């Protein structure tokens, strides 16, 4: 190995050693981690199967399937989920993966958009996300997406609600400690959509964010609100380089 190669290897090893980020999975019990790892035990795979069926089903006035444009999801969607939220030129704003699916549905299939948190949308989103499992989270570096992340960072640090708490106070300052019997994770959203045991069902990151806002007795924005998209963009930037686990399982 050359001197330059040795130096780069040393820098990379030092950076890895300094990275103290942990996936939410590392704060779970071994039995829950095993449930996520094993696709035959992971309940979220039921939604993935539904999403796979929808991927190949014709829909809308265009009578087209997702596969008609994108081909097999295993190839056409590889790496896509790891890049969202992202700026979309047609929409003129930063959008989530679920919104991207709905834009395809209304514009190309000429079918009605799926309702937020619907089984159909979560299934398709989970099927698409599965194709990026194991790949690093890679948020785009364009100015619009980074501006959304900057707004999300400010919201992350802003105290809200009757309890006057910010996301950072729990997930940065108290991570690893207990809150009402549950361990507080570091807020790395690299496994969504997730099957949550508490919900006994599948849910999006925005559902989880709204749960937290409700928990601190703050005004909860509607699904799809810009502040929720901005928070998603910031959480993606925080998790940059971490492997995508979708579809995840959480307590």
TrEMBL record:
UniProt keyword Iron present: yes
Stretches that traverse the bilayer: none
Record-linked SUPFAM superfamilies: Cytochrome c (SSF46626)
Gene name, Swiss-Prot/TrEMBL: soxA
InterPro entries registered for this protein in UniProt: Cyt_c-like_dom, Cyt_c-like_dom_sf, SoxA
Enzyme Commission numbers on file: 2.8.5.2
Catalytic activity: L-cysteinyl-[SoxY protein] + thiosulfate + 2 Fe(III)-[cytochrome c] = S-sulfosulfanyl-L-cysteinyl-[SoxY protein] + 2 Fe(II)-[cytochrome c] + 2 H(+); S-sulfanyl-L-cysteinyl-[SoxY protein] + thiosulfate + 2 Fe(III)-[cytochrome c] = S-(2-sulfodisulfanyl)-L-cysteinyl-[SoxY protein] + 2 Fe(II)-[cytochrome c] + 2 H(+)
Similarity comment: family membership: Belongs to the SoxA family.
Domain Cytochrome c: residue ranges: 147-239
Subunit and interaction comment: Heterodimer of SoxA and SoxX.
Root EC class: transferase
Listed name of the protein: L-cysteine S-thiosulfotransferase subunit SoxA
This protein's record includes keyword Nucleus: no
Organism: Pseudoduganella chitinolytica
Keyword tags: Electron transport, Heme, Iron, Metal-binding, Periplasm, Signal, Transferase, Transport
Subcellular localization: Periplasm
PROSITE patterns in UniProt: CYTC (PS51007)
